[in-house]
Amino acid sequence: MQTTTPRRRSGRKWLVGVALLPPLAFALYLAFVLNWSYSSGERAGYLQKFSSKGWICKTWEGELAMTTVPGVAPVLWNFTVRDEAVAAQLNTLLGRHVVLHYEEHRGIPTHCYGDTSHFVSRVQAIDEHAPFLGAPVAPRR
Known about the structure:
Elements: H1 4-35, E1 39-53, E2 59-66, E3 75-81, H2 84-92, E4 97-104, E5 118-125
Parallel strand pairs: 3-5
Antiparallel strand pairs: 1-2, 1-4, 2-3, 4-5
């Protein structure tokens, strides 16, 4: 009888270890994709839409209208904001021309972190009255 008792305990330890392995692997994967960015950069355009969305997990989702040439339909870029301070700043800049600094995190397994893979970390308003530095230069004759 003494030989069967240690086997039961070791069997339980093995079963508990196997049961804890998938949640631990998922937690490590989630920590990796949330902290390691695939890409980062900036996007400029008009902040067209910004709202808090979700049934259970509320996230801040926005839409930036990027226009290249006046008169051409804008390209819409969707993004997510996790920082409440950045969300408050974006709410005050709705409808204005802004530059959004973002990081892209691919492979996030749930929508509780956002509907998109682009997470805005900083925003900068563009002064509408500043001269456009990218204006075309007249050709020489």
